[in-house]
Specification:
globular, alpha+beta
Length: 114
Amino acid sequence: MKKIIRAGVFETNSSSTHSLTLVDFEDFEKWKRGELLYSKWKGELIKAEEQKGKCAFCDDDEEDCEDDCDYDEDERLLTYTQFFDEADMETFDEVHTCKNGTRVVAFGYFGWDG
């Protein structure tokens, strides 16, 4: 059996869905305050100010990308509240302290995809 590993992707052989994102504690707090937005497409937090008027999918100006990109409503940039309130699955966020004292937050969602 051949195994294929893709960078930044977690896969299982089941019908369940899993999402896990690790971020610096301070960035997570900035997201809660609205300074950052979560890009489901990129799997990262992005400065909210830099994204005004841009497509969440391709980073072009919204007016320029409407006909050119495959933008999907599910791939838009999300606030902290939108991420946790709009999830159709169970969500989590947990703070962890590394041995060197760095604090990180693991967050995401899980459940059945159907």
